[in-house]
UniProtKB/TrEMBL annotation:
It comes from Pandoraea terrae. GO terms for molecular function: DNA binding. Keywords: DNA-binding, Transcription, Transcription regulation. This is Transcriptional activator protein LasR. Residues 177-242 form the HTH luxR-type domain. The lineage of its organism: Bacteria, Pseudomonadati, Pseudomonadota, Betaproteobacteria, Burkholderiales.
Amino acid sequence: MASGALTFCHWLRHLELAAQRDVESWFAALTTLSRGFGFQHTAFAVLPRQGTCEQATFACSTYPSDWRRRYRECDFAQIDPLVAHAREHAVPLVWTSRQYAGPEQRALYAEACRHGLRTGVLLPMHGPGLSPGMLCLATRECAQPRVLARLTQTLPSLALLRDAAQESGRCFVEQHANEAAPRLTPRERECVTWVAHGKSTWEISRICGCSEATVNFHMGNVRRKFGVTSRNVAALKAATMGMLELP
């Protein structure tokens, strides 16, 4: 697409994105749209809320598999300036090497370049009741003035693409979140709910009509499922993920 103008034909393609009924077809349609703007790689991610497990991250990407594996193994998300921008800001960003300031970030960018990720556009995603996310589009082109000018011109259309992707992909994000959430039994959910209310083990045993050992057994299972050692942290995670009914 030579300019940022959104034609009727482009709108039809956005409608095609919304019409997809499975995540594979949906992301394939999104990738096709992104390539129409000249990007070789597309990544769509909804980041986990603070305090929730990394498995809650919803991510679809055409980035090279070696790079995705390296990114996960090194936990690059903790130092990636694009992730930080997506969490803290709403405005789109034409990204280049300039965003990677510190030594660790420059090393991260150098590795990304070796995988064909040199320049691109980051479009943060935010909304009421939604976790932060991003649509990140990358090209192997260097940050020449003509490239940056072209990317800047496409920002209005890319913002519409981001909005369409966020809205049409919401059902897939919610499905993933439900599948990633730990499965608690009714008794485990009851016990951790009372922990969230500040009740002691003895108080919970009286409320639930069971022994303190039984409460400790259920809370041990809850801690294991959330991968934590503190029952208060487990209760916080359960509440953050919307698993508890709290006043």
